[in-house]
Amino acid sequence: MGSLDDLLESQVQARTQKAAEELAAREEARRQHEQEEQAQVWREQENARRKAEADARIARAKELSNAMDDAAERARAALAARQSDAYIKSGLEYFEKNDTFNAIADSTQAITLNPNNARAYYLRAMSYHAQGDYDRAITDYTKFITLPAEHGDAERLLAKAQARIKPWEN
């Protein structure tokens, strides 16, 4: 009977060994599956982080682009205002020399560059007035009155414009 017991013992050991190997293989498969799931979660988190960073960079780039556009527009407006002022200065020089045609040309150019430049309308109105073109003078005086005058001269320039208009009203 010894050999039957040995045979049974050997079969039990073989089955136990096989069961232990299967259990170890299942445990290894479970660990690998958990690692794969953890790796997948990490990849998803990393992708979400990268997307958030990319979205933030895009938003910042848009902000910078808008800021650059705003700065460029302010620079264009400032340049136009400076050019408009240069035309007014030139127009005033022409007006002082009684060259009303060139004064009108320069003040018109100043208005083209800066349509809200009250001084340009006033200069052109005075030039039209000096030429005897009262309809155009009144039109420009009227426009001048509706615009905020620059450099704090609004009251003085308005009084001058009104004084120039009054002779035509009678």
Description of the molecule:
The protein has 170 residues and is mainly α. Helix content is 89%, strand content 0%. It is built from five helices and no strands. The protein has helices spanning 2-96, 100-113, 118-131, 134-146, 154-169. The chain is rod-shaped and about 145 Å long. The model has no long low-confidence stretch (mean pLDDT 85).
Record field, number of beta strands: 0
State the separation between the terminal residues, measured CA to CA.
Answer: 147 Å
Global mean pLDDT: 85
- Following the backbone from N to C, one meets helices and strands in this order, namely HHHHH
Q: Which stretches are low in confidence, meaning pLDDT under 50 for 5 or more residues running?
A: none
Q: Which word captures the global form?
A: rod-shaped
Q: What fraction of residues sit in β-strands?
A: under 5%
Query: What fraction, in percent, of the residue positions are helical?
Result: over 70%
Given the helix and strand composition, which structural class is it?
mainly alpha
- Calculate Rg over CA atoms: 44 Å
Tally the helices: 5
Largest sheet: none
